[in-house]
Every structure is written in C-alpha cells, then in structure tokens.
Design a protein that fits this description.
Helix content: 40-55%
Number of strands: 12
CATH architecture of the largest domain: Alpha-Beta Complex
Strand order of the largest sheet: 3-2-1-4-8-6-9
Order of helices and strands: HEHEHEHEEHEEHEHHEEHHHHHEEH
Structural class: alpha/beta
Number of domains: 2
Strand content: 5-15%
Radius of gyration: 22 Å
C-alpha cells in the first residue's frame, strides 16, 4: 500500500507541475491578430495545394482563397494523380480566375517519393512568389487570413509561420478524440517553444498553414529532404528551427477552418499513414506510449473508484489537475468550450486503440497505404 500511495502521489505531482508549466507557457502562444489596415508592402505569395481525389472539398478551398484580400497572390493546385473530378473542378476555377489560379497535373509518381510530398515540391517548382504557403485541399480561409499572416511574419522578421486551425468535427467521439490527440501532442511538443528564438531544437508545423520564405524552404533542402516522410509538416517545422531560422507558431482558429476527418472511423484509417512515423517506427516507444497513457490518464479514474484514503485523495487531485490541462488546450488553443475532457479516460482508450492499431497494421502490412499508393516500411524507415 505504501508503494501505491507513492505512485498516486507521483501522478498527482506530475499533473500539478504540468498544469502550472503549460498554463505559464501558453501565455507565449498568441492568436494571430486580424489586420486592420493594408501594409505598405505586400510581397508575392504562392499558395501551393496538393490535391488527390478532393473533388468534394477543393472548390470550397479555392472559393475562400480567391476571396482573399491579399492582392499579390497566385494559387497553384497540384492535381496528384486524382481518379475523380478533382482536376476538372480545379480547371474550372482556373478558367474563372486565370490571373490567380493555375493547375498542374501529375500523371505518375517518381520512385522514392510520397505522393503529397512530391506534389508539394512540384508546386514549389512552378511557384513565382517570394513567400510560399503550403496548405491542404480542405481548408477554409477567412478573407483576411493571408494578409494578416504575411503582415505578422514581416513585422516579426520570421522565416516560417504556422497556424493552428479550428478543427470542425461532426460527432462527440470524434471531437473528443481530436482534442485528446492534440493535447497529448502538445504535452510533448510544447507549442509555445517554437516562438522562443533562443532555442533551436523544438520546432513544429501544421499542414493546414505553412507559410515560409522561399530562401528558408531552400535552405532546409525543400521537400527533397522529406521525400518519404509522412509527417512532412511537423518535420519541416523541426528542420526550420534546427537550421537556426526564425519560426512563429500561432493560434489561428479565427482564420482557418478544416474538417480533419468526417468521422472517428475515417480518423482511424487516415492516421494509419503517420502515427508510426511520429514515433520513428520504434516498438519500444510504442510500448512506452501505451504504458504512459494508461498510467497517467486512465489509472487515476480507476484508482479513485478502487481505493480509499490518501490514495483516493491523491488520485482525485491528479484528475483535477489533469482536467485543468485539457481544458486549457480545448478552450485556450482550440477555442472549443466543450465538456469532452470530463470523459477523458474514454477518449484515452479510443486514442490508444487507434494509435496501437495504426502501428500494428503498418508492421503487419510491411508499410502504409496512403491515397491508393503503397509505401514499404523499409523505404519509410530509410527515408526517415
């Protein structure tokens, strides 16, 4: 029982200091302010969209991009071997906005590339702008998003700016999973650290909005250095920081909206491609993640019901501190006032299932199937 009390105390102390640390740190994670007056100088921006089988979403994205208040803008849609009407829809927008929209078609994928990464690199090769904005085919932009982002980036003399979008979810379980996934990511990838110019180790990036200078992109080797990296957005952000370049990571929930996945089952299938990559294809890390989530996220709830006395008190405090951390991120960062954290252990179990499933399937199949293309695990490991 002494060991159990000690364990409960350790968990409570961990969550207490985690709450204090993240509450203090998040004060250094600002929201992107919306610009009021046009700046004196607005350099050319090339928006690069990699699109494969996105006929349902690409039109809405292009609609929001063509309505941007930023005047010096080109939009490059890279149609990556789509088998639906993505290319036709994009060309309709090109016809309607010939001065802004350009479509590039990819018919074959070169060996040694992931499709999306090759499409991003292809878009860069066609881009004319001094600033490059990599984004996804299912993102909706506020009309002043790009103008606000470019102004902020120039005022802070940043080389790279990434924005946290508002994630649109259709169900309780999907919303809870997205919040749990994001919060556990931020428990390890402290989101305010990229804004600290004194450190060059902790970088980050989100694929919905990756704005960087052409020079910075070329200095880190472009996507040619990330040919077989499923989590290319995160790794690009890390490379930016480790190159000693200036990075900014901001809350952009008032500027961007994206439906990451339409359902929980779609999220489970979609994350098959990059969860194992996120832990460097390491089995020991997989087991550690499972153990840590069970111990620090699930066990306190079980312990409060199963034990009494000081053990129950310590675990009860741990739950309160833990909920404080999760409400910090769901309200402060996601901008979503929801009771999801109150059933946190259930979301933790769902998270563990999706996490473990993705890793096991990758090992069982010997690779990942992403957008109808199979990539071998040995090639992914070598590329990583």
């Amino acid at each position: 029982m002494i060991a159990l009390k000690a364990l409960a105390a350790i968990i409570a102390v961990y969550w207490f200091f985690t709450l204090i640390y993240h509450a203090y740190g998040l004060r250094k994670l600002p929201k992107l302010p919306r610009i009021k007056d046009p700046p004196d100088e607005e350099p050319p921006v090339s928006v690069i969209i990699a699109a494969r089988n996105e006929q349902e979403a690409i039109g809405k994205t292009l609609d929001s991009l063509t309505k941007q208040s930023y005047p010096n803008l080109e939009i490059i849609v890279v149609n990556d071997r789509s088998t639906d009407r993505t290319g036709d829809v994009a060309e309709q927008w090109q016809t309607a906005h010939p001065a802004k929209v350009r479509v590039v078609h990819i018919e074959t994928l070169p060996e040694g590339w992931l499709g999306k990464n090759h499409a991003m690199y292809t878009g860069y090769r066609h881009a004319q702008g001094n600033l490059l904005l990599f984004t996804d085919a299912d993102v909706a932009f506020h009309p002043d998003t790009i103008r606000s982002a470019v102004d902020y980036m120039r005022r802070h003399q940043a080389d790279h700016l990434s924005l946290i979008p508002c994630f649109v979810t259709r169900s309780f379980w999907l919303r809870g999973f997205v919040h749990f996934f994001a919060t556990t990511l931020y428990l390890n990838k402290h989101p305010w650290k990229p804004n600290d110019d004194r450190q060059t180790k902790e970088g980050i990036g989100i694929g919905a909005f990756m704005l960087l200078t052409r020079d910075a992109y070329e200095r880190i080797g472009t996507h040619k250095r990330l040919k077989l990296t499923p989590d290319d957005d995160l790794q690009l952000g890390i490379r930016i920081k480790r190159a000693g370049l200036k990075q900014r990571y901001l809350i952009g929930t008032g500027h961007l909206r994206v439906e990451w996945y339409p359902s929980l089952s779609a999220a489970a299938r979609g994350l098959e491609k990059n969860i194992f990559a996120g832990i460097n294809y390491s089995l020991p890390v997989l087991f550690f993640v499972i153990f840590a989530v069970l111990l620090f996220h699930v066990f306190p709830y079980i312990g409060v019901l199963a034990f009494g006395g000081w053990t129950r008190l310590a675990l009860g405090l741990a739950i309160l501190f833990m909920l404080g951390v999760y409400f910090l991120y769901t309200v402060r960062v996601s901008g979503d006032k929801t009771p999801d954290p109150l059933v946190l252990p259930l979301h933790a179990v769902v998270y563990l299932f999706i996490f473990a499933r993705a890793c096991v399937l990758t090992m069982k199949r010997g690779g990942i199937c992403w957008r109808d293309t199979f990539y071998r695990l040995e090639d992914l490991r070598r590329g990583n």
